[in-house]
Amino acid sequence: MARMYPTPIDPGTKSDAERMLYEAFRDTLGDDYTVFHSVAWQSLDRKGRARDGETDFVIAHPQRGILVLEVKGGYIEWDPRTGKWISVDSEGEVHSVRNPFEQSKEAKYSLRGKLKVGLEATTWQIHIGHAVAFPDVFVGEEMLGLDKPREIVLDATDLIDLSGWVERALHHWSGKPSDKTLVVSGKAVHALVELLGRRWELRPALWGEFVREDQQLVRLTEQQYQALDLLTRQRRALI
């Protein structure tokens, strides 16, 4: 069973396709896999400006590498003349969507940039690829385009052997890894867990307690001055 982040899936996940794939990855991939669902990050572009990055799934294996996966559920249509993509959900509603191949490719390069920050200069050997999942439709062996080979497309038929598809997709990007690459890939997976799955908590600073105590003393002092001022104008008082 794969190690999943988060566990369980975020109850706010609206996509049925993502929910189904989350359970499938969890139940069919081995315990040497780490899978992140619905992750986001920020990285810097070539001009040093911040840019957002996000993807539906990141699948990591210490020997095979990392796969960034974008998921589109429902009926899918692409018009090469206009470059527009649409998705039709189970209720028949039509949605205009971004090019999922461009989305996963952008996320791949952005995430690789974040990993390079925390690893040595040989990180260019990290095997990280991108892929797209259409789990509700049948693609068959058809190539969807020169930049959309069947090896990086998951369809409904691939769900029968999901672990096999993941392994083939990773192999498509990595080829036969060398011993040196295996070491680097293992470090990359560890860095990925630190980047996307690190637990943290924020606790009140000690100086904050001192500030609150000082504020309380000031309030008490002001109340005492008010009481003394009142007593100076009264001959009798009940305390």
List keywords for this structure.
239 residues; alpha/beta; 6-stranded mixed β-sheet; 3-stranded antiparallel β-sheet; 5 helices; 9 strands; elongated
Describe the structure.
- A hairpin with a 4-residue loop joins β5 (75-79) and β6 (84-88).
- Helix content is 37%, strand content 24%.
- It has helices at 16-28, 100-118, 162-174, 179-196, 206-231; strands at 3-5, 34-44, 50-61, 65-71, 75-79, 84-88, 94-97, 128-134, 153-155.
- The N and C termini lie far apart (71 Å).
- The model has no long low-confidence stretch (mean pLDDT 82).
- The longest helix has 26 residues, at 206-231.
- With 239 residues, it is an alpha/beta fold.
- A 6-stranded mixed β-sheet has the order 1-2-3-4-8-9, sandwiched between helices. Strands 5-6-7 form a 3-stranded antiparallel β-sheet, with no helix packed on it.
- The chain is built from 5 helices and 9 strands.
- The radius of gyration is 27 Å and the shape is elongated.
**Could you state the oligomeric state of the chains shown?**
single chain
Order of helices and strands: EHEEEEEEHEEHHH
Per DSSP, the total helix count is 5
Helix content: 25-40%
Strand order of the largest sheet: 1-2-3-4-8-9
Number-wise, the strands total 9
Query: What percentage of amino acids are in beta strands?
Result: 15-25%
The rounded distance between the terminal residues' Cα atoms is: 71 Å
Uncertain segments are: none
Mean model confidence by pLDDT? 82
